[in-house]
Amino acid sequence: WWARRGEGAFLRGEPLPALEAESGVELLGVDSATPPLVSAAARALEATGAHRLRALGSIALHLCHVASGRLDAMLSLAACRSVDAAAGQLVVREVGGAVAFPDAGDGRLSASLDLAMRSRVVAARDHETLGVLLAELP
C-alpha cells in the first residue's frame, strides 16, 4: 500500500477504489489488543455493533485494511505515536475514509508528527461510522 496526498492510494501499483458508506460494522480491527485492554473495553466494543473483531498486530496494517475495504473500521485501545499511523491514515483518507486521533490536543481529526505526541487511532470507511466509534470509545 502507498498513497500520495491528492493523488490517491494504491495497492500493488493499482489504484484503490473510493470507499462506499454502508450501515453497520461487520469487521472491526482492534489494535493493542492485550487481554487487559480488551477486557476493559469489552462493553464499548460490543456497543459499536461490530459482528466480528480482528487483531492484526499493526496499526498501519489495520489502517490499510480499512482503506482496502477488508475491514469496516479499526481502533487502537492504547495510544501510539502519531508517526506510526501517519502513512496508513493518508492511505485511508485518500480513498475517502475517515481517521481520528481522539487523544490529540489540537483537534481529533489530526495529530502533529511530534515524536512525543501519542493518541489512540480510530478509522472507518466513512465519517458516520467514525462518529459511532468515537462515541463508544472507553
Q: What is the CATH C level class, in words? A: Alpha Beta
Q: What is the overall number of helices?
A: 5
Summarize the helix and strand pattern as letters.
Answer: EEEEHHEHEEHEEEH
Q: How does the helix and strand content classify structurally? A: alpha+beta
Question: Would you identify the regions where 5 or more consecutive residues have pLDDT less than 50?
Answer: none
Explain this structure.
This protein has 138 residues and is of the alpha+beta class. The protein has one domain: D-Maltodextrin-Binding Protein, domain 2 (3-Layer(aba) Sandwich). Helices cover 32% and strands 22% of the residues. The chain is built from five helices and ten strands. It has helices at residues 35-40, 42-47, 59-67, 82-94, 127-136; strands at 2-4, 8-11, 14-15, 27-31, 52-54, 73-76, 80-81, 98-100, 118-119, 122-124. The strands form three sheets. It has a five-stranded mixed sheet, with helices on both faces. The chain has a three-stranded antiparallel sheet with strand order 1-2-3, with helices on one face. The chain has a two-stranded antiparallel sheet with strand order 7-9. Strand 2 (8-11) and strand 3 (14-15) form a beta hairpin. Helix 3 runs parallel beside helix 4. The N and C termini lie far apart (30 Å). The model has no long low-confidence stretch (mean pLDDT 89).
Brief summary:
This protein is α+β, with helices and mostly antiparallel strands. The protein contains five helices and ten strands.
